[in-house]
Amino acid sequence: MKTIKVSVVTPDGPVYDAEVEMVSAKAKSGELGIMAGHVPMVAPLDIAAVRLKNEGRTDYIAINGGFLEVRPDVVTILAQSAERAETIDLVRAQSAKERAEKRLRENPDSIDIKRAELALKRAINRINIAETK
Amino acid sequence: MASLRDIKSRINSTKKTSQITKAMQMVSASKWNRAESNAKKYVPYMEKIQEVVMSIASGSTDASHPMLMSRPIKKTGYIVITADKGLAGAYNSSVLRHVLKTIQQRHKSSDEYVIIAIGKVGRDFFINRKMHVELEVTGVPDQPSFSDISDIAKSAVNLFQNELCDELYMYYNHYVSAISQEVTEKKILPLTDIETSGTLTSYEYEPDPEAILEVLLPQYAESLIYGALLDGKASEHSARMTAMKNATDNAKEIIDSLSLQYNRARQAAITQEITEIVGGAAALE
């Protein structure tokens, strides 16, 4: 099967660089599946998992926002942070989740509510991905 | 001429100082190595994001966004990146001097500008001159991660979006090489001077260009700030390394000349003693 090159780049350096058969990502407007030869496209991404399928194997990467750029031969995901399932620190993710939940419970009408919600979303996303590996 | 003991104690204290500066030089050298590799690791991200921004902003003329438009300038924002401590040669002073000069040239009253200070030295400098510092960040780690500065970057971008300032400049030391850093002025917002070069891909936008610019442009502006910070950190450590190396070399020079003085003084004392003994012996005969 034809493959397409994928690179996931963050400010702290590249996270993933490989040839895959299919990239599935959750864009703001819905799920996207990209295979080799896709038309050039740009889409903002949601905080969710990106799944990279290759030879029956699936790699999961936790993406915290950012966007996806598709060219016929290469897919680039630019995110402010991204982690591969293997490198996620489950304990840290869980404590981040508890922290965010506590903050939401204690001051439900502070201005930081949006930030806490985002932090919670990121933590849950990381936990889910870490558990699928 | 200073007494033997005075010279000895000066030699000792200079030696101790040089040990400290030597240690600081080595600490900076290792930090500089890491800072430089951090700055390098960041390059692919920056290049990529620049490429996409360029092709969207220049490719589709119908896509517009407040961050791409210049508006009449009532207030200018200055982001000044300095270190938290001194002892780095001209690193801090050259940036601060440049900013101060620019502000004095461009503005007549203090209502026309806001200052965002990153680093303790810069903040204290402006506060001492009774200039209002709108936002300040101190204690930025030596190897900053993106999350460490995303708050300041967001608030700076927000200043522009909420029309609290109409343009945003950034000043920092650009890292050229281990021995040379250059004060750089960079306009962050509005993003009017995006250069177009190379081949541009025309994209399909999902859902539409405006929605993408909405996500992309703040992220781009933030990454510009982060990139400058990494650049500044690499410059800071290399400047400090050079400054400390000079200090160590100077200390060595001082120790050498003091040792010479010390030996001369000792020799003079011995000669004097001998003359005294000889004189005494001659008197007895």
From TrEMBL, chain A:
Residues 86-131 form the ATP synthase epsilon subunit C-terminal domain. Its main location: membrane. SUPFAM superfamilies: Epsilon subunit of F1F0-ATP synthase C-terminal domain, Epsilon subunit of F1F0-ATP synthase N-terminal domain. Signal peptide: none annotated. InterPro entries: ATP_F1_dsu/esu_C_sf (IPR036794), ATP_synth_F1_dsu/esu (IPR001469), ATP_synth_F1_dsu/esu_N (IPR020546), ATP_synth_F1_esu_C (IPR020547), ATPsynth_dsu/esu_N (IPR036771). The keyword Transport applies. It comes from the Bacteria. Keywords: ATP synthesis, Cell membrane, CF(1), Hydrogen ion transport, Ion transport, Membrane, Transport. Residues 4-82 form the ATP synthase F1 complex delta/epsilon subunit N-terminal domain. It is a peripheral membrane protein. It is found in: Cell membrane. Belongs to the ATPase epsilon chain family. PANTHER family: ATP SYNTHASE DELTA/EPSILON CHAIN, ATP SYNTHASE EPSILON CHAIN, CHLOROPLASTIC. Produces ATP from ADP in the presence of a proton gradient across the membrane. F-type ATPases have 2 components, CF(1) - the catalytic core - and CF(0) - the membrane proton channel. CF(1) has five subunits: alpha(3), beta(3), gamma(1), delta(1), epsilon(1). CF(0) has three main subunits: a, b and c. HAMAP family: ATP_synth_epsil_bac. This is ATP synthase epsilon chain. It comes from Peribacillus huizhouensis. The lineage of its organism: Bacteria, Bacillati, Bacillota, Bacilli, Bacillales.
TrEMBL record, chain B:
Its main location: membrane. Keywords: ATP synthesis, Cell membrane, CF(1), Hydrogen ion transport, Ion transport, Membrane, Transport. InterPro entries: ATP_synth_F1_ATPase_gsu, ATP_synth_F1_gsu, ATP_synth_F1_gsu_CS. It comes from the Bacteria. It is a peripheral membrane protein. It is found in: Cell membrane; Membrane. PANTHER family: ATP SYNTHASE GAMMA CHAIN, ATP SYNTHASE SUBUNIT GAMMA, MITOCHONDRIAL. Produces ATP from ADP in the presence of a proton gradient across the membrane. The gamma chain is believed to be important in regulating ATPase activity and the flow of protons through the CF(0) complex. NCBIfam families: ATPsyn_F1gamma (TIGR01146), PRK05621.2-1 (NF004147). F-type ATPases have 2 components, CF(1) - the catalytic core - and CF(0) - the membrane proton channel. CF(1) has five subunits: alpha(3), beta(3), gamma(1), delta(1), epsilon(1). CF(0) has three main subunits: a, b and c. Belongs to the ATPase gamma chain family. This is ATP synthase gamma chain.
